[in-house]
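User: Once you have settled down, look closely at the record that follows, taking as long as you need, and be ready to discuss the fold:
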Amino acid sequence: MIKKGFSLLELLVVIGIIAILLAIAAVSYSTIQKKSRDARRQADLKSIQQAAEQYYAACGFTYPNFGSGTSEILCTDPTRMILPTEKLPLDPKTGTAYGCNGTCNPDGFTLCATPELGSEICVTNQQ
């Protein structure tokens, strides 16, 4: 009489292979999330740059003052809301506003974000 089934060694090998595959999948998933957040950061900075350029064209050829972080972009003369606070892009991981890096004044700006992968992402004035 022959008993059919798996030996303990065979089960341990299968469990080990499954564990390795799960570890690889977890690392891949984490990397994909980081790349996605970095792409979002790049798109957010681009939209802030476009809003600042609209402000420049509509508000007497000066840029908004971003200070320590971006806030609503509102032209007061003539009164024109370009980027309201509720539509202001925030960092996808921290939820904070993108800050000014270097020069941010009525003559120009440089906004940067620190990505999770790769080098720093920056946009600057186009005029």
In short: The first strand starts at residue 73 and ends at 76. The chain is about 40% helix and 20% strand. The beta strands are 73-76, 79-83, 100-105, 108-113, 121-124.
